[in-house]
Design brief:
By secondary structure, the protein is mostly beta strands. 11% of the residues lie in helices and 41% in strands. The protein is globular.
Length: 162
């Protein structure tokens, strides 16, 4: 299969009870899971903070935030550090728990089909449900997810720190 100018490189990420599809460029690094530093008063999906390159990043159970699972993160999981897109200089990155390494995929217009989200609508922080060849996946709305995370940190009175 030849690449076309409109094709993009993406990654499929297995999370608990869902597969996520993200642009490859949104991932800064993949780390091994380590128990995060707790954030008092945080929502259950905000697992805590991890240290990464001088930053303390919020670690999020994305599928729990979206209301799809009770994911908590555990040894053997991976952590994806994602580039924040919201433009907040105090919040340039955040991290999500995954159940393995991302799988690099080519996303072409003819291989990507939207799926009906049904009567329930899309979960929080999700832009779309799609079918990419044989894989059903959720496309996170990273800007909306960042806003949800920032609200969760504000409610816990735990602003991002360097």
């Amino acid at each position: 299969m030849d690449a076309h100018p409109t094709d993009i490189r993406g990654v499929l990420i297995q999370a608990e009870k869902a597969r996520l599809l993200l642009p490859n460029a949104s991932i800064a690094e993949v780390l091994s899971f380590a128990t995060p530093e707790p954030v008092d008063g945080a929502p259950g999906w905000l697992l805590g903070r991890i240290r990464w390159r001088g930053w303390q990043l919020p670690l999020v159970a994305f599928t729990r935030m979206a209301g799809l699972s009770e994911e908590t993160g555990e040894p053997g999981n991976r952590v994806l550090v994602l580039k924040a897109l919201g433009g907040n200089p105090a919040f340039p990155y955040f991290a999500i728990v995954t159940q393995g390494y991302p799988r690099l995929v080519t996303v072409s217009e003819d291989a990507l089909q939207p799926l009906d989200d049904g009567d329930d609508g899309l979960p929080d922080g999700v832009f779309a449900k799609v079918q990419l060849r044989d894989d059903e996946a959720l496309v996170p709305d990273l800007v909306a997810a960042e806003a949800i995370i920032q609200r969760g940190l504000a409610e816990a009175d735990a602003v991002p720190t360097v």
